[in-house]
Structure formats: structure tokens, C-alpha cells
Specification:
By secondary structure, the chain is mostly helical. The protein has one domain. The protein contains 13 helices and two strands, in the order H-H-H-H-H-H-E-H-H-H-H-E-H-H-H. Strands 1-2 form a two-stranded antiparallel sheet. The radius of gyration is 20 Å and the shape is globular.
Length: about 325
């Protein structure tokens, strides 16, 4: 009950900020906040997969590409309204995650990370080859423009719905089973847990979140382009989860904001010499990872001290 009260309070604060921010920030900042929301949704799915089941993925940019091109194809070829494509984008990417999760059941740790990384490398190449549907290297351009306030509203309304769904799933027996699998697959299996089912389900749900984020990315970019889903995107998502995981789902928001704003402002903080902005972004990622690790260690030490209580004096 206490946990649900805390979640209700966080949701109330989030709704308040959702309605307040458009009145206190500029129109351009609303577009930046929409991009933060897009990263937040993708990282939320990766957080479920990595933190709750212990499966590491460096290929979630591929699932974003699948969801993004689902939106692109439906809008460009079928003339769907862009916002209505988001559930389909999540569904198609979720099915792709389920299909990938089945052969990945035999992989763990570094080998699973390498397999997902290979997926992130191969999907953009496949997109470029399938030119009749995806537009190849040129991509699919939209003629639909929206105000920045619209992008902000759609992105964060979608994020709010997905956060509530994530809370419900993680608080259900499915979430508790995922935590048991993360701690010990052998122990969970001995209690009758069907390990392949739950691990594959986690991959599918995580990929569905990435697919919705990819659809939003395409809508914000006014078209689907393979260059919008580079290999670095998967790495950025994992780094954002690592930075924000110390504080649960609210921490993921910090990670999403970090990835967005460092990409935007790192080139402005340093000279325009070739390679310097990229180096600055990498250095910022490393420093943030160290800071998150140190904060997490201090938090654990503080919590341990509270459980032990004050030290007793000895005569």
C-alpha cells in the first residue's frame, strides 16, 4: 500500500508538471521535452528487461527502427493518421522482440549482449535494401506538420499511459517472477516457473515500448530515415538506463534527459574541431556513469546503516 501511495504521488506530480510546463517554457523547449519523452519510453522498456530480468540488450535501437518504420509505412503508403499508428508500431516491434527472444533463450550475459548488438547493426542495412517499402537510404518523408505543443502532449500522454502499465505489470505476479528469475533461474525453475515463457515475454514487452518510442521518433522527425536509428542509439539507451536505474522509474527520466541534452549541448560547450563534440559527449557519459555508481553505493551504505541502527557503546 505504501508503494502504491508513493506511485500515486509521483503520478500526481507528473500530471501537474505536464500541464504546467507549457506555460513556463518556450515553444522550442517543448519540442526538446518531447524528444526526452521519446527516449524515456524506450529506456522504460529496456529498464524492465535489464533491471527486472537481468537480460542485457545493446540492440534496442533495432526495435525502435522496426516500430518507427511501421509508423512510416502506415503514414506514407496507407495514409494513416500518424498518432494512430503508435499502437501498431508497438505491436509489430513486440512481436519482433518475441521472435528474437526465442533463439536468445540459450544466450546469457555477454553473448546475449553481442547478439542484440548484431541485431542493431543488421536492421538498418535491411531497411536500406528493402527500398520499395522503406524508401531505401532516402527514407519516407511526411507532409504532416504539427505544433511543438502537439508533439509534447502526444509524447508525454503516451509516456504516462505506458508508465502506469509498467507499474501494473511490475507489481503483478509477472513482475515478481521476473525478479525471481533475475536472482536465480535455478531456484525459480525449481518452484515451477516456466523460464522460457517469462524471459521471452520480457523481451516482447520491452521491444513493444521501444517500438512506440520509434514511432514517436519518426513522427517528431517528419519521416522515417535509416540514419535516425544508428548503432549509437542502442548504446545511448543502455547508458541512460544505467545512469537512472539507481532511482527506479523516476531515475529513468533523468537518464533520458541526460542523453537528450548532452547530445544537444555537448557540441556547443566545446570547439567545433572534428571529433571534439563526440569526445565531449563520451566523456560526459563516463562521468555520469561514475557519479551514478557512487550515488548508488552511498545510498546502499546509508540504507544498511539505517537497518543496523546506531552502534552500541562497549564498556
Amino acid at each position: 500500500m505504501r508503494a502504491w501511495l508513493a506511485r500515486g504521488a509521483m503520478l500526481a506530480v507528473g500530471v501537474l508538471l505536464f500541464f504546467l510546463l507549457p506555460h513556463v517554457v518556450s515553444d522550442f523547449r517543448l519540442f526538446e521535452l518531447a524528444r526526452v519523452g521519446q527516449y524515456f519510453i524506450a529506456m522504460l522498456g529496456l529498464y524492465v528487461l535489464t533491471i527486472y530480468t537481468g537480460q542485457v540488450s545493446i540492440g534496442h535501437g533495432a526495435f525502435m527502427a522496426i516500430g518507427g518504420y511501421t509508423t512510416g509505412v502506415l503514414v506514407y503508403h496507407r495514409h494513416w493518421e500518424d498518432v494512430r499508428t503508435l499502437p501498431i508500431a508497438g505491436l509489430v516491434a513486440g512481436v519482433a522482440g518475441l521472435l528474437f527472444g526465442l533463439p536468445a533463450l540459450r544466450l546469457r550475459g555477454l553473448y546475449l549482449a553481442l547478439a542484440t548488438f548484431a541485431l542493431a547493426v543488421s536492421v538498418p542495412a535491411v531497411i536500406k535494401k528493402w527500398e520499395s517499402l522503406t524508401g531505401g537510404s532516402t527514407g519516407l518523408l511526411f507532409a504532416t506538420f504539427h505544433e511543438n505543443r502537439w508533439y509534447y502532449n502526444v509524447t508525454w500522454a503516451t509516456a504516462g499511459i505506458l508508465v502506469v502499465l509498467a507499474w501494473i505489470v511490475l507489481a503483478s505476479p509477472v513482475g515478481r517472477t521476473w525478479r525471481a528469475l533475475r536472482d536465480s533461474e535455478v531456484a525459480a525453475s525449481s518452484f515451477g516457473v516456466w523460464v522460457p515463457l517469462y524471459k521471452t515475454l520480457a523481451f516482447g514487452i520491452s521491444a513493444a515500448y521501444a517500438g512506440v518510442a520509434g514511432g514517436l521518433l519518426v513522427i517528431l522527425s517528419l519521416g522515417a530515415n535509416p540514419n535516425s536509428f544508428p548503432i549509437q542509439l542502442s548504446i545511448y539507451l543502455l547508458v541512460g538506463v544505467a545512469i537512472g536505474s539507481f532511482a527506479g522509474i523516476p531515475g529513468i527520466l533523468v537518464g533520458a534527459a541526460f542523453v537528450e541534452y548532452v547530445q544537444v549541448y555537448a557540441p556547443k560547450w566545446v570547439s567545433d574541431s572534428p571529433g571534439i563534440p563526440t569526445f565531449a559527449f563520451g566523456a560526459a557519459l563516463v562521468l555520469a556513469a561514475f557519479a551514478a555508481t557512487a550515488f548508488s553505493a552511498l545510498t546502499i551504505r546509508w540504507q544498511t546503516g539505517l537497518k543496523r541502527g546506531p552502534a552500541k557503546e562497549t564498556s
